[in-house]
Amino acid sequence: MDASLGVLRRVARATVTLDAEIPESHPSVPVLGTQRFGSGAVVDEQGHILTVTYVVLGAESVRVTDIDGHCYDGNLVAQDFLTGVAVVAMEGGHIAPLDAGTSESLSTGEDVFMVASVGEAERRCGSGFVCSLDPFDAYWEYYLERGIWTSSINPGLGGAALCNRRGELVGVASLNLGSVGRAALSVPAEHYFDHSAELLANGRRISRRGRAWLGMFCYAFPDRTVVAGVIPGAPAEAGGLSVGDVIIRIDEIQVTGRLQLYKELWKRRPGEAVQLKVFRAGQLSDVTVNTGDAEEFFAPPM
């Protein structure tokens, strides 16, 4: 795609580098570490920056660097763990924001481009097209009903701005997948824009029905779902779920795949107990887990 230089310049100037410091005590540290770098895009005149959740999850401070190398203090003010977007508020300075877009306006084959930080004031652009808008489920109890799959990878740090040819922000780059025809996945930007007032007022989506969470990682195979890990201190660990467990049933409902397991789990509310039948060490075992709330578990420090 040959995006005009003017559009590229405008998008690049709206992007920032995020340097997040996370306290050792935060439950995301064993997986993600205490210092994380990412990309972000300014989305309003008040200096709010949209990024992907894992970059700033649990951050107690964030340093923001613009394309001219100016640095500002930032604070994590909202995170939506269930969709994967987070918001940082920048203190001081002014950066012209990007126009709001939506994945609903996209179609397969449409040209898009990403602008990402590669550290401090350096930016990099990658261009391609929309491969699909299919759902996506992942190993950390995560599901997008509509993902933005693109032909080009994110050329820099996570949280890059995915834009249409007009330079409107339509997505936030989350993962490079390395698949033929599906190189990267972005979270649709409407998960922020459609709920920005609620997110900024409350720090999370309080109007959405809560859903049960175990705090596990799991692999999906054609005929089984296998526990790959549990988060220290999460309900799965407390309930005795173990690495290598093959989940056979949840509350007497046969598990036929990872997404089906998630959907059955999410019919329950946080705090409800679930009975899991697992295959472990050559025999069937029962595991009872008192579910939790992921957003409360990963809440930013106060």
Beta content comes to 35-45%
N-to-C SSE string, H for helix and E for strand: HEHEEHEEEEEEEEEEEHHEEHEEHEEH
Spatial extent as radius of gyration: 20 Å
Q: What is the number of helices?
A: 8
Characterize the biggest β-sheet: 6 strands, antiparallel, barrel
CATH class of the largest domain: Mainly Beta
Helix proportion: 10-25%
Count the strands? 20
* Name of the CATH homologous superfamily of the largest domain: Trypsin-like serine proteases
CATH topology of the largest domain: Thrombin, subunit H
Largest sheet, spatial ordering of strands: 1-2-3-6-5-4
Task: List the uncertain runs.
Answer: none
Query: Between the first and last Cα atoms, what is the distance in angstroms?
Result: 44 Å
Whole-number tally of structural domains: 3
Q: Please state the structural category.
A: mainly beta
Mean pLDDT: 95
The rough form would be described as globular
CATH architecture of the largest domain: Beta Barrel
How would you describe the overall organization of this protein?
It is built from 8 helices and 20 strands. With 302 residues, it is mainly β. It has 3 domains: 5-97 and 195-202, Thrombin, subunit H (Beta Barrel); 103-191, Thrombin, subunit H (Beta Barrel); 216-297, Pdz3 Domain (Roll). Strands 1-2-3-6-5-4 form a 6-stranded antiparallel β-barrel. A 6-stranded antiparallel beta barrel has the order 7-8-11-14-13-12. The N and C termini lie far apart (44 Å). The mean pLDDT is 95.
